[in-house]
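quick one, 462 residues, struct below
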Amino acid sequence: MISLTTRLTLLFVLVSVAIFTVLGFMIQHSLSNHFATQDFSELGDKIKATVRLLERTQRSDSATAIALSIEEAIVDHDSIIVRIDTADGDNLFSISPITVPYNVENLLLKPGQAERREWQQGEIAYRGLAMATPGGTAGSPALIISTAMETTRHAAFMDNFSSKLVGLMIVATMLSALLGWWVSRQGLAPLRSMGAKAKSVTAKRLDQRLAVESLPVELGALAIELNLMLDRLQESFNRLTHFSSDIAHELRTPISNLVMQTQVSLAAPHTEQELEDVLYSNLEEFERLSRMTSDMLFLAKAENSMKLPSSERFKLEDEIIKLFDFYEALADERSLTLRMQGGGELAGDRIMIDRAISNLLSNAIRHTPENGQIDVEIEHRPDVLQVQIKNTGTPIADSELPYLFDRFYRCDRSRCNTDHEGTGLGLSITRAIVKAHGGSIEVHSDKNNTCFTLIFPEQERA
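---
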């Protein structure tokens, strides 16, 4: 696997090579154009000088005089070749056998305009200009003036320059690669710091967090999300740890009772009735274990985004009346009053909703003193259906309210007015059911009553 530093370095090198290559071609092209412009300008100056000499010596019929004048004019430019020919092809003057490959007809059609030419003769490259002088009178015949020069020195310079430029590009590319590697290392240093910090997170050090303020803006959002993930992980781990401890504690009591009762039964002879009582006692413990196991399985499913087994619209007040009928005998024993107000329809799983409200009613009956009162109020509010279950009795301490929905949590025993005690999972199951229906649950307790509020979102009719 190629590291991110290597990838960035290679990208930096490729971009540098591309830039240097384009820059090198531009420099070479600019130099070539510069030499060509300079050469043609110099050749043009020689043609103009030759034309002026011809005009001054035009009255003389001596070709020797013309040749001497031209030779004197180019004495400091031995690299320039000058040639004068007639329109018929007769040579009047030449200091070299080199001939500019011009087209006589084109030149005669445009007298006074120079024509550029570049060609190669053997291994030597040339640049040249050719121009026809105006003629047509008896004393002024049309002449073809051509000048040329070798460009070998330019080619040698360009070859040498290209070699040095390539060497410079190679060195610059290597420096760019080194600079790219250093920049990448420095730029990715925060990522390595994040990786080292993440490596330090273990089951015993879940409190470690990334320092967002010391990171670049681009990595700040990632660090925040990682910290939030670590928060959720720590919360889940703590919940799992507490759950393991709680379940061990909850299972220890019934199992110890079963073991103790069995050992006592086996220690001495007992009558048939005594053994039957032991079996009934054991059966109660087994039922408690079975109920606890079922509740824990239900919670495990609920915490893993449990889907509703079924969904239907039903009148919530009808379900509460059924639950009142179920708990009527138990409430009469304690002289408790059960009352309901309001009504409304709810879309969801009827059995799960019954179980959630049944858990709350069961708790209310257990913690309400004799001659107390339990009220269930159903109220429609904007976009929600609210169900409140209130009971009189000893208030719940404010310090205990945040933990009521934790698994196996039990309040102060002074609030309980019965010897019967549940598994400590009822409120956890109620909250899981409400959340599965997209709702929420709240609790409030004061000296007057304790109130659990279930809030369900309103759903449109199908």
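Confidence is low (pLDDT under 50) at residues 413-420.
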